[in-house]
Amino acid sequence: MSDQSALSSAAGVAAGHAKLAQGAASEAIGNATGSEAWQQSGADTKAAATQEIKQAAQSGPDAKAQGGVTGTAAELADKACPQTGDGVGSK
């Protein structure tokens, strides 16, 4: 795949993680204040972000990353993200 495709995929994954953080913050505000609307909005945002991350990671290049880390972009994203894989904070 081209460098442009790799950049597009990486940008999509990054945007998805930003949206995931936004959803987590909204949900935390809802939990702290007892607002079910904020809790639901945060959960919905996180669910949408998770799908965006997966789609962006799957559309990226299927190449080996530098530094000896191997796997598809989707596999790497699943390992790194607590919402989509077994990454930090998933347990």
From TrEMBL:
Residue ranges for the region (Disordered) are 1-71
Q: Where is the composition biased (Polar residues)?
A: 32-43
Give the domain of life. Answer: Eukaryota
Regions of compositional bias (Low complexity) in chain numbering: 1-25
Q: Per its record, how is this protein called by name?
A: Uncharacterized protein
Record the organism.
Answer: Ceraceosorus guamensis
Recall the taxonomic lineage recorded for the source organism.
Eukaryota, Fungi, Dikarya, Basidiomycota, Ustilaginomycotina
